[in-house]
Amino acid sequence: MTEQVRIVLVDDQPLIRGGFRALLDAEDDLVVVAEAANGEDGVALIRQHRPDVALIDIQMPVLTGVEATRQIAGDPALGGVHVVILTNYGIDEYVFEALRAGASGFLVKDIEPADFLRAVRSAARGDALLSPAITRKLISEFVARPPAARTAAGLEALTNREREVVALVARGMSNEEIAECMVISPLTAKTHVSRAMTKLAARDRAQLVVFAYESGLVEPRAGRSSPAQ
Length: 229
Known about the structure:
Layout lengths: L4 E6 L3 H12 L4 E7 L2 H11 L3 E5 L7 H9 L8 E6 L5 H9 L3 E4 L4 H12 L4 E2 L1 H13 L15 H11 L4 H8 L3 H14 L5 H10 L3 E4 L2 E4 L2
Parallel strand pairs: 1-2, 1-3, 3-4, 4-5, 5-6
Antiparallel strand pairs: 7-8
Helix pairs in contact: 2-3, 3-4, 7-9, 7-10, 8-9
């Protein structure tokens, strides 16, 4: 029997929670172990159940999705919980703050059911989860920010190889795609990614994406990212 991905669902709208739960519980490999209507109760349930994935609405009463993410990421006992933020909204400072706090990524609530299920499984594997629409807006926002807002802190700690790997992660590449691009084995690519995450104290691959743009390691050009010279 396939091991199930355990999920805690946190959203203040009962209809949204019910719809997502019905989708998830209909799958043999996915199960919702608890649900909550506000961030404070959600964090308590996540501490109790320690799920693989926490689906958290970005704007909720009592405790926002950003603050809930920060508390989860700050608890060493919850290191295995992958937070995915659910949002109806476009990119704003809440999105950046949740990413910086340790969210694995974002999903818009009008996502197609098949894409939603695929995304939850990807999050459980530890992959960065940024939908194409979110990623485009995220990059555009970084471009619009003045250079002074970027920091090169942490770049010195990375080897040239690790910088190259982080730049490719920021382009949305998987370990297998990075390996093919750099002509190395997938295991070596995974090792480089893991070392970069450790050196940058990045909880998730999504935080590597944020770092790559904030530090200026990559620059969006015609929809692409290329290593900064």
